[in-house]
Amino acid sequence: MNDHTYKHIVLTGTSTKSMEDAVESAIARAAKTVRNMRWFQITDSRGHVDKGKVTQWQVTISVGFTLE
């Protein structure tokens, strides 16, 4: 196993479908410019309620990636 040094970034993804979709959305967008992402941790979650229904999920994650 190699020793790694990780850098962390904080992302917030949103979705009208689910928390999982909000996480996947954030990771997919970050993958366009960030390489070597290895893990994530959910640090906060919230939602928007409109007329008694959940209309949006918002999830904040910390993402670790290895430095080159």
What features would you describe in this structure?
It is built from 1 helix and 3 strands, in the order βαββ. The longest helix has 12 residues, at 19-30. The protein is 18% helix and 56% strand. It is elongated. The mean pLDDT is 95. The protein has a 3-stranded antiparallel beta sheet. The protein starts with 5 loop residues before the first strand and ends with a strand. A hairpin with a 2-residue loop joins strand 2 (37-50) and strand 3 (53-66). It has 68 residues and is an alpha+beta fold.
What are the key terms here?
68 residues; alpha+beta; three-stranded antiparallel β-sheet; 3 strands; elongated
Low-confidence stretches: none
Gap between N and C termini: 16 Å
Average pLDDT confidence is 95
Major beta-sheet overview: 3 strands, antiparallel
Helix run count: 1
Q: How large is the share of residues in beta strands?
A: over 45%
Helix content: 10-25%
Order of helices and strands: EHEE
Rg over alpha carbons: 14 Å
Strand order in the largest sheet: 1-3-2
Principal-axes geometry comes out as elongated
| Structural class designation | alpha+beta
Report the count of strand segments. Answer: 3
Secondary structure: elements and pairs:
Elements lengths: L5 E10 L3 H12 L6 E14 L2 E14 L2
Antiparallel strand pairs: 1-3, 2-3
What would a concise description of this structure say?
It is built from 1 helix and 3 strands. It is α+β, with helices and mostly antiparallel strands. The chain is 18% helix and 56% strand.
